[in-house]
Amino acid sequence: MLLPTREAMVFLKILPMNGGNGKSSYANNSLLQKKMILEVRPFLEVSIKDAFSSGIPSCVKLADLGCSSGPNALSAISEIIHTIHGMSKRMNCKSPEFQVFLNDLPGNDFNNIFSLLPDFNEKLTKEEDDTLGHCFITGVPGSFYSRIFPSRSLDFVHSSCSVHWLSQAPAGLEKNKGHIYIANGSPPTVIQAYTNQFQRDFSLFLGLRSEEIKLAGRMVITIIGRSMEDPSGGECCDLWELLAESLTDMLAEGLIEEADLNSFNIPIYYPSEGEVRAVVQEEGSFNLDKIESFEANWDPFDDSDKYREAQNVANYVRSITEPTLKSHFGGAVIGNLFGRYADHLAKHLLMEKGKYFFMVISLTKK
Predict the structure, then answer these.
(1) Distance between terminal CA atoms of the chain?
(2) Which residue ranges run through the membrane (predicted)?
């Protein structure tokens, strides 16, 4: 099994989302992720019922990978607990206890999550009843591109809006000048570099989880992907190309260095369904039970005012990229950059609606 390089482990230290509860925090700009969790709830419920149809262990061990911070970190876990507890009542058996592991990178704002636990526990108690088993929640810092749990210890793994993030920006992107992701003007070598990085990373992710999940255990993953075969299609790339244009504007005014722009590439990849299926089959540790797909607007508020819509999208992208951008370009450029980005987004949204393509995947450990 290929393990992350030293460079990748260093790079992962700067990838966490913006912490805290400020205007630019992930906690205050993650409505899109909340909507995705709600959208896949029926899919998640079916997977849970299938996973525990033959019996529920006395202690169910759950993990949420890439949980980030804010209330979203606990919403999927609440749904999983609710479903399993309901199953136990219908089976006329004692509710299990729950051991919940919330995982994200070491720089994640875990304190934000921990501050929400008293309200979470109180709400959980009110929504269920006194037959609900004890729930123990633990923060687990670490990259999911490394081992983070003991062998065959987990019953169910969930991850939402995380696994499309790569372990590092691919090597060999020297010809991607002026772009920060795959774009229409990117040469084939750039597309291949991103594709190869995704294949390595997703295969590694599956292999590591196969060691940690019990036999016949389940995993449900929601990721941003693409509906078209061409990785350079606008559906996948426009959001990042508009940010690249904002950086290019700043370069023209001497506000950033050309070398810094040419050496920056966002560590993300939006795969097609075919690519996901191919990696799962080749890696071989899991059966792919089901894939569903759906679209969502860039702006989860669906604001009718294009300028407010653009600002909403800019705020969201800032919340997920600011630590990475700060590390590369310096903190002084951030406010200026995202002001320009909102302007570029507004012009784009006046011409067409920005859409994400999501996939939710259910896997069973062989």
Answers:
(1) 17
(2) none
Q: Is the model's pTM score more than 0.85? A: yes
Of the listed ranges 169-178, 231-240, 272-281, 326-335, the one predicted with least confidence:
231-240
Neighbours of 152 (CB within 10 A): 13
Work out the pLDDT band at 11, boundaries 50, 70, 90: very low
- 79-82: Cβ within 8 A, 24+ apart: 79/37, 79/41, 79/44, 79/45, 80/44, 80/48, 80/156, 80/158, 81/124, 81/128, 81/132, 81/135, 82/127, 82/128
- Report the distance separating Cα 63 and Cα 362, nearest Å: 15
Query: How far apart are alpha carbons 44 and 157 in whole angstroms?
Result: 11
Q: What pLDDT, on a 0 to 100 scale, did the predictor assign at position 8? A: 46
Is residue 110 within 8 Å of 139, Cβ to Cβ?
yes
CATH architecture of 27-231+266-298+355-365: 3-Layer(aba) Sandwich (3.40)
Give the residue among 239, 240, 174, 162 at the shortest CA–CA distance from 201. Answer: 162
pLDDT above 70 (res 33): yes
Helices and strands (H and E) in the chain: how many? 11, 7
How would you classify the pairing of strands 213-225 and 154-160?
parallel
